[in-house]
Amino acid sequence: GLPDRQATSFIVKKAIAYIEQLDRNLQGVDTLLKTGNVTVDAILSAKIAQARAEGIAVTVQANLPRELTLSDLELSIVIGNLLDNAIEACRKAEGEKFLRLTLRIKGNMLYFYLLNSAGKKQAKIGSLFKTGKSGAHGFGLHRAEAIVRQHGGWVKYNSEDGAFTSEFLVPAVP
Hints:
The structure is a single chain. The model is unreliable at 133-137 (pLDDT under 50). It is globular, with a radius of gyration of 18 Å. Helix 3 links the parallel strand 1 and strand 2 (98-106). The protein has four helices and seven strands. Helices cover 47% and strands 26% of the residues. The chain is an alpha+beta fold and 174 residues long. The strands form two sheets. A five-stranded mixed β-sheet has the order 1-2-3-7-6, with helices on one face. Strands 4-5 form a two-stranded antiparallel ribbon. The longest helix has 29 residues, at 4-32.
């Protein structure tokens, strides 16, 4: 094989090229994603870049007002956890890996619908599913659900063979 130093510099060059590409993708995502809400733009941009870097096909339709009644932290926890969950499920899925997200306002409610590829149908525990990740992961979904409920909304998860859907509807327009 290559001598070590050459191999290392080759790997470093590849890594740098990858990071630059990712950076370009992120900039692309930045302009692609103008949901109307800066916080949501930031969360989605980061998660979508991560998903695409893992070879997941992502489609997003999002149109939101600038002001929402959920705090930046709450939005980050809810949207971030549901997207982390979807990315995790895609990792385990066989075949095509995809993630389709719709985020819009219905009346005074924020509506979130996420469809992602997943492995085998999962068993439910209450309204939540057992997850491969220990504790923390399930906890993330619990927190997301708790926040939506605090604001008077609901969360629904559905598991089929090969796909998983998460949706929530929460009063969010001031």
